[in-house]
Amino acid sequence: MKIKVAKCAGFCFGVKRAINIAENALKELKNEEKIYSLGAIIHNPQVVEGLLKKGLQVISGLETIKGGTIIISSHGAPVEILKEIKKKKIKLIDATCPFVKYAQNIVKGLKKDGYRIIIVGDSAHPEVKALKSIAGKDKLSEKIGVISQTTQNRADYINAIKKILEEDFSEVKIFNTICNDTSKRQSATRSLLKDCDLMIVIGGKNSANTRRLWQICKESGVVSFHIETELELKKKWFKGKNCVGITSGASTPDSMVGKVVEMIKRFTRDKGRE
Fold first, then answer.
1. CATH of 13-96, one of 3.50.30.40, 3.40.190.10, 3.40.50.11270, 3.40.50.1950
2. Given the residues 33, 63, 84, 127, the one annotated as active site
3. Pick from 55-59, 137-141, 223-227, 254-258: least confident
4. Does 127 participate in catalysis according to the annotation?
5. Is residue 135 classed exposed, middle or buried when 0-12, 13-18 and 19+ CB atoms within 10 A define those classes?
């Protein structure tokens, strides 16, 4: 059985940057000083668990926080939260992905110019929540500005744009804010689907970009499984398969991809084990 790994695997730039920022801050941690992450710094439970062991504390709100340092996750944070951090005079470290920052700056510009802003993405995702907070209340304007969550499926974004263009407006501005890494991963995944009869998607179950990859695989009709670690693999999945493709989300480390590959090889060698 052939094992093919997508060309775009391992951490993306924004995730790697956020982890480096967190680890450097933890190295400089002084006695009794506390460092918090406002929500998971990236959407990978295993990586976050590793940071927790080094001293990072994940919080969902600022209610009980009176001091220390707060790291903004790679997804960004709502304007209201940033104002509250400043008001409380808590030290802030911003690990927002530069591509997310780019989308935020576009929203700021559209808002300033009086556009009604439409954000295509998952409303419950922290990145979208931050973008919505910057956009503010929906404006009754005939000028429309459209952006996408950076990890959105390109095909879904195009379909959403088509529906938006059916509305009445005097002017529309459309921005491609899907990050380059996301597009490359989706393209690499589609390439694997041409040759493989089984797909393994590795990444956090709470990772939007990983779920998009799984969606692409499922919609292709190829048997696909979404896992976080190699321990979730089952030998029976690989029976009768000729080629397995492996793709991973932007917050999945290379080491986890390697573990999955080794476990699949082990299944192939150990034919008597289930």
1. 3.40.50.11270
2. 127
3. 137-141
4. yes
5. buried
